[in-house]
Amino acid sequence: MRNISLFVVFLFIGSKSVAQHVTVDSKYHSPLGIPLQLSAIFGDIRPNHFHMGLDFKTNQREGIPIHSISDGYISRIRISPIGYGRVVYIDHPNGITSVYAHCSTFSEKITDFLEPFQVEAFSNNIDLKLRENELIVQKGELIALSGNSGSSTGPHLHFEIRDTKTEHGLNPLLHGFNIIDNSTPVIQALKIYAVDDKGYQIPGKSMIINVQKTKNGYSIPGNKIILTKDFIPDYGQLAFAVSGSDPIGLAGNFGLFENICIIGNDTLFQSKYNRISFDDSRYVNSHQDLDEYKKSKLRFHKLFKTAHNPLHIYQFEQIGSIKVNPKDSLNVEIILKDVSKNSSTLRFSVVCPRETASKSERFYSSKTHFIPDSSYHFKSEQMEIDIEPFTFYEPIKKIKAIENNRFGNNEITIQKAFKVTMQPIKNINIELKNQYIQVVSNGKSTPLFTKIENQKLTAESKVFGQFYVKIDTIAPKIFPENFKESDTLIHGKKLIWKVLESQTDIFNYNILVNGEWKQLEYDLKTNRLIYFRKDKTIKTAIIEILVSDNCENIGSWKKILYFE
């Protein structure tokens, strides 16, 4: 602990020129052993999900102490080469759960508690849920060191607060964590749409309007939008979206917090990033205008929603669109607020044409489009596709049924994975367990985790493309990295091996030292296995490493090593 304390003092002195952006209420202890500097906030839009917590910088280093913010008990410990990596969950008496992700190591107390469960499972990867008060921690107790584990793209602490009962992510900036922020949100652009009564966008009926900032605030050219007769079909309605950002002091620009659309004196729509369900986080693809982002990289937050979008950020049940009539003149007010209640406002009017739109059919039907609330089943000689309801966000033009084992294309983004069932390769001397399904989408080949059901291969995929059955009989290969294969005398306490797996992913990895299971780390980003020698009294050891892939091929490395 003395070395850790000195390290923290050094980091604190080294970072004194950077403002501390986050303070913590006295009821909580800071989760990190250095001043809290933001790099991401709750609700930031990420690929296929909302960011569900706060990211704190760690000066691009690992090993900074992580502390429990309050008294409680550890309710879950998870280790995975993907996602949150090494992560600890602590339930607190006030009904919240705090989460500390991408750790490099856990405290000795947690590590020693976890090891027997890993030995029993014969696995370093583990997702352990604990009983109430089985492993108690105190406010300020050291629980881990910061790191870069899992899918992290750089050393930092990802910190969350959750509602213990619902497991919904809560915005920490509304629950004891505070920022000094005097900057108002920035409004960059406005987009208007014609939508139907379910909030589905009518193809070809949208328009982007640039927003200007003047000394009097935000405005659009002429402060007026004049609609053409054919912009909104007779069955359609008018809706809006806004592109903007939230500057927070020296920390940078972040995503929006609260968006409001008022027409006349009525609040038509309001979204607020106070709570998000993890089960619904992928609906970020419906909340933002994803097609516009793919096309122009402009990030528009819709000021309306589809009827089946379940996100808790919406303050009203209604869609957020409005039916317009000939000669209507609507006074529109769009307000963006940040968590510190700073606000920016855009006011303009929408003038409707004098003529009534001609009668027209809806742009979709069950004959021409996949409808979001419907399920679908397709079958060919070689494969089957099963799609559950609410897989699609919007009505999608129907594509050809399975053709040459191809279904759909990578341009279609979906909410749920669909099930793929394929006939295995027969008439060869290859076991079923060595066969797997691969999808090729946009030129990228991805092996899917494959199961065997009724002598067929099944997998789930969130991308469309062409599907193949492949064979993997090649075991992972293991090579020493920080010592030579010919070395017998080893210096230092850390041993590193490189793992090569050419086809399917690594499923499990273990190390035996003189026949006893020991903890072993796997860094998926670098394909490295890392073993820390804890018992320095062992001077001679038979080291055996076993690595299996998703097709149950097992690679091994075994040698007698001597230690200084």
Provide a descriptive summary of the structure in words:
The protein is mainly beta. It has four domains: 2-179, Glucose Permease (Domain IIA), CATH 2.70.70.10; 186-351, Coagulation Factor XIII, Chain A, domain 1 (Distorted Sandwich); 369-471, Chondroitinase Ac, Chain A, domain 3 (Sandwich), CATH 2.60.220; 477-563, Sandwich (Immunoglobulin-like), CATH 2.60.40. Helices cover 7% and strands 43% of the residues. The strands form twelve sheets. Strands 2, 5, 7, 8, 9, 11, 12, 14, 15 and 26 form a ten-stranded antiparallel beta sheet that branches. The two termini are 25 Å apart.
Helix and strand topology:
Blueprint: H1 2-14, E1 22-24, E2 38-40, E3 45-46, E4 49-50, E5 54-57, E6 65-67, E7 72-79, E8 86-91, E9 96-103, E10 105-106, H2 108-121, E11 126-129, E12 136-137, E13 142-145, E14 156-163, E15 169-170, E16 177-179, E17 186-195, E18 201-210, E19 212-214, E20 217-219, E21 224-226, E22 237-248, E23 252-254, E24 258-263, E25 266-272, E26 275-276, H3 284-287, H4 290-296, E27 300-302, E28 329-337, E29 343-351, E30 369-370, E31 376-379, E32 383-387, E33 396-397, E34 406-407, E35 418-422, E36 435-441, E37 444-447, E38 451-453, E39 456-461, E40 465-471, E41 477-480, E42 489-490, E43 494-500, E44 506-513, E45 516-518, E46 521-523, E47 528-532, E48 540-549, E49 554-563
Parallel strand pairs: 21-29, 42-49
Antiparallel strand pairs: 1-16, 2-5, 3-4, 5-14, 6-13, 7-8, 7-11, 7-12, 8-9, 9-14, 10-13, 14-15, 15-26, 17-18, 17-22, 19-20, 22-23, 22-27, 24-25, 24-28, 28-29, 30-33, 31-32, 32-35, 34-40, 35-39, 36-37, 36-40, 38-39, 41-43, 43-47, 44-45, 44-48, 46-47, 48-49
